[in-house]
Structure formats: C-alpha cells, structure tokens
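Hi everyone,

Forwarding the result from last night's run.
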Amino acid sequence: MVSDVAPVPKLQPTENWDIFKLQRKILLIFGLWPADRLVRRWYVKVLIAINLITLTICMVGEFLHGLYAYRDGDLSESIESICPTVSRLSGLLRVVFYLINEEKIDHLLNHISEVMRDKHPRENDVIKRMATLGQQFTFYLFLMMFFAACLYGVTPFFMMAYSWFRGQQPLEKLLPFKIALPFDSQNTAYFVLTTIFLNYASAPTITSQSGIDALFSGVCLYVYGQFRAIQLEVEALSATLDSTAARDSFAETLRINNALRRISKRHQETIDLVAEVRSAFTANILLVYTSTAIIMCIVCVAMLVVEGIYKLTYLPYAFAELTLLFLYSYSGTVVRDSSEAIQTVAYNFPWYRFDRNTRHLIQMMMIRAQYGSNVDVPFFETSMTSFSAIVRTASSYITLMKSFL
C-alpha cells in the first residue's frame, strides 16, 4: 500500500555549516537560519514573532519616553532613551530585510555548500584560515555587543546599591532602559517583570545585528578564499611549465588548455557567487551604511551629556558600531582586491608560448578581473574608503551637535 503522505524534508546536516558555525548559533537564538526555513518548527516561528514584537514594544516605549523627556526640557534623559531605540530599529529592519531575502540567502549558502564538497585539496588551508578569521570576527563583534547589553542591564543595580548604601529612602527603582510604561515601575512586582522583559529584549537586539552582519562577513571571507585559491591554481600551473621538456608540444598545449578552461570556469562561478552575495545582502548593506553614522553620532553625544557610571555603558556600544562598519567595509575590500589580483597572476602566466585558445582564456580572465567583483550597493561602495568617510562624517555630526549642547 502506497502512503499518500508527502515525506517530511530533512534538515541539512550541521557539519555543512562548519565555516559559519558561530554565526548559525547566534542566529538560532533569534530563531533564524535560512537552511531551516522550509522545515522550521511552529515554536521557532513563535520565537521569531515574540522577538520581533519585543523589539517593537521596546522601540515604541523608548521613543515615547524620549519624546516626553524632550518636551519636559530634559535633553540628557531624551538622548539616553533614544540611543538604544535607534539600535533596536536597526535590528528590527535587519531581520525584516533578512526574512524578505531569506530564500536568496538560503540559495547562496547552498551554493557555497556544493562548492565545498567539490573543493580542491589546495583550497583546504585557505578555506580553513578564512573560516577561522570569520569566526574570530563574529566572536569579537558579539562579545562587544553582549558586553554593552550587560552594562545596560547591571548599571541600574549598581546605582541602586549605591543609593541604598547611602541610606536613601524610599529607594528609587531604576530600569535598565528608559521606557514609557502604562504602569508604575516603582511597584515591586511590575519592576521585576519589566526588568526581566527589558533584559530579555537585549537578546534579539544583539543577535539580530551580530548574527546577520557576521554571516555577511563570513560569506565575503569565503569568497576571498575562492579568489585566492584561483590565484594559487594559476601559479601552480605556471610552475609546472619550468620542469616540462616539450613545452610547445600538442600534448602540453592541450594539458594547459584544459587546466585553464577549468580555472576560467571556476573564476566565472566565483564571480556569479559574488553577484548572489550582493543580491542577498543589498538591503542590509544599505541599512548599515546609512544608519551607522547616525547611531555613532547619537552614542557619542550620549557619552558627552550623561553623567557618572552611565558613560561607561556607551563606550562598548560605540566600539561595537565602529566594528560593525569596519567588518562591512573590510569584507567588501578583500573581495574586490582578491578579484583584481587575478589580473596580475593571469598576466604573469606565460600565455605567449601557447596557441590562440590559451591566449583567449587568459585574456578573458584578465578582462573579468579588470572590472573586478564587488558587493557595492547603490550610493555606497563597501570599502575602507567608505569606512573612513563615514567616520569623518560622524565626527562632523558630533562636533556640530556638541556646539548646540
């Protein structure tokens, strides 16, 4: 008897994602991993919805509190409230763009998984080094964001402990974030529940940023490894010519021609992979480059206007945003530079010793490399030049706003 029930699709093995294992763990805290999108359990979908609702509630409450504080003339309170709001809004938009493009990201990761199964032994060291570097970047980014969230969470308890030590009565209860509430936060039960909720809200805030952005950086480093492996292939093929006796023979020409065809095909596939990366992450790249200068400006102004221990909470926050911008810029730079470097390697190959077909293959590789492969988006190029320009712009904003304080 044939069953009418359709087979349940199997989850992809986690060992396929060893090069993105830390990014995967961080994204699964939010409930997101593109390879699981077709087999995502109902409770994971509920977790994603809860995290999105949590971000929205905190964002609205903090914005309203900042607006009320501004109307009351308390600039310091207003900036303290709006500062995390911008970060939550950025995280919320990241997840929305991620979900919109999740099918593209899933296709991209599957493409990478297929390439890894067919990789040449010469790639092993390159891919291993790039994977390690990607994991280190992810760890440092997550650590800084986690440290900033922890400072936000524990600073009010230090302040309350200090007030209690000085004998302040009644003791004012301080929340981790400045937020407008429909109830009295000084009520013990409400205070405990609100504190737990606000501290939990830090989890989707930092995972939505560090996970998605670190995944983009990891993919770019993998692409860099592919371009670097192509360079090694061309150099290794060129090295075999020195020890060949009949360099101009038909057999030798055919061997070189076949090898160059394989390398040229792989070069084109890597260029297509870059196009997939650009298509899948365009919205998030635009978001990062348009919002980071504003966020850094608000954070640095907050460091100037707040007093006491609260200044320390914004220092890791500022470093986290700076690191985030650096990762995007550095990732785009290494992709472009490694792509353009193939032009030099191809030119150094002794193509002039072979037939027209061999010269044509080398010329095609040089033309592709000359135009370069990049993950640029409209209005912005992901490069260290953009990084320095945005940092200078943020510094100008800070100087301008400081003159009004």
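The two ends are 79 Å apart (CA to CA).

Cheers,
N.
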